[in-house]
Amino acid sequence: MLSPSAPASFAPVSTTAAPSASLAPDAVLTVAGVGAQLAEEHCRLPGETADAVRDAGFARHFVPRRYGGSEGTFGEFLTATAAVAAVCASTAWCAALFAAHGRLASYLPEQARQELWGAGPDVRIAASVIPPQGRATACEGGWLLDGRWSYASGIDHAEWVLLACFTEGAAGREHRIFAVPRAEVTVLDTWRPLGLRGTGSNSVRVVGVFVPEHRTFTLDRLLRPLPGGGRCHGVPFPMVAALQFAAPLLGAAEAAQSLWIAATAGRRRADGRPAALTPAARHLAAESSAKIKAARLLLTEVALRADTAEATPAVVAECRRDAAMAAALCAEAVDRLFHAAGAGALAEGNPLQQKWRDVTAAAAHATLSFDTAAAAYADAVFPDAGEPGSGERDPGEREPGERDVRDSHGPDSGRPYSEQA
């Protein structure tokens, strides 16, 4: 979630989608399939898999064209990421984030972008930017970073990493992002999760690393279009943040559905009857496939809005709602499939079990929380419901732990961000 101090202003963007970026997910599938078990065992992608992700165009997908990037579409991003996730969710997770972090790095000042992409756009960038961690101390010409940052997916194969700290600015506390060469951080072997084991989402430690001023920007920049950027740089961060995490989840859920269908078709009950003829199995086949199909339709609509729609607060809230609901539908469907698969699914190495673990882990990501997305959507469609004197609760009187999502979207759901400044 963006900083509460971020301005609620966002200019209208073009409704013309960028041409195809020509991602090549098929080039990843074989390599990812071969390396999936190694990724599971070693809790990071094999080098060959990470290289295949780069070579398929994921790292360059949202990089500006002036640096050789693709300035690709969110529709192609969704399709390619889900295709890879059907084979290996961890590979797809890293692919999605390498692409997404290239988009974030596009907001760095020009000198930093030259440092990142001067030799080419196929640069893998890891990140740990939400929540801010560590400490940044202002010094002559820039900042000194110290501390520890968690969950930097793909860090073992990254050339750069984006880290975030709270800093003090002219207007108060700022959420500032720093671009740091991977060679200047220490990777800590901390990633031993239930699912998405191959993402290598380790912690990093930094001790007294100098970051020049030109390699930083504040998170509120992500609420405004990138000057001279493509369509993919003309949408606010909250509009697409959930999509990057939901896309791998979708592909894994679709694969889980196929695995369950195949396994159930070949199973027989204790009484000798085919498992596929039982009413429970037939009902579950229809229900789970409908939920996962609905999730794909929801995410396809999110991507289409991101590629073509005007970014009003209502549209941003719809995108957050739909991506979070898609994730919930996938998680519900796969959970039921796993629990209906019998004792065989509990065996180590069972492919359906792995999909269940990966989907469960992905759905737990905070960006996919439906409660948070629902609150944002309600604020967009009921902009005056909480105003003092309206008979409803004052927006400032929040329950303990409740976050105010209005600040990221602006008070008027129907007008473009630029008209609400």
From TrEMBL:
SUPFAM superfamilies: Acyl-CoA dehydrogenase C-terminal domain-like, Acyl-CoA dehydrogenase NM domain-like. Keywords: Oxidoreductase. Residues 390-412 have a biased composition (Basic and acidic residues). The keyword Oxidoreductase applies. It comes from the Bacteria. The keyword Transmembrane helix does not apply. Pfam families: Acyl-CoA_dh_2 (PF08028). Residues 244-369 form the Acyl-CoA dehydrogenase C-terminal domain. Residues 381-421 are annotated as: Disordered. InterPro entries: Acyl-CoA_dehydrogenase (IPR050741), Acyl-CoA_DH_C (IPR013107), Acyl-CoA_Oxase/DH_mid-dom_sf (IPR046373), AcylCo_DH-like_C (IPR036250), AcylCoA_DH/ox_N_sf (IPR037069), AcylCoA_DH/oxidase_NM_dom_sf (IPR009100). This is Acyl-CoA dehydrogenase family protein. It comes from Streptomyces roseoverticillatus.
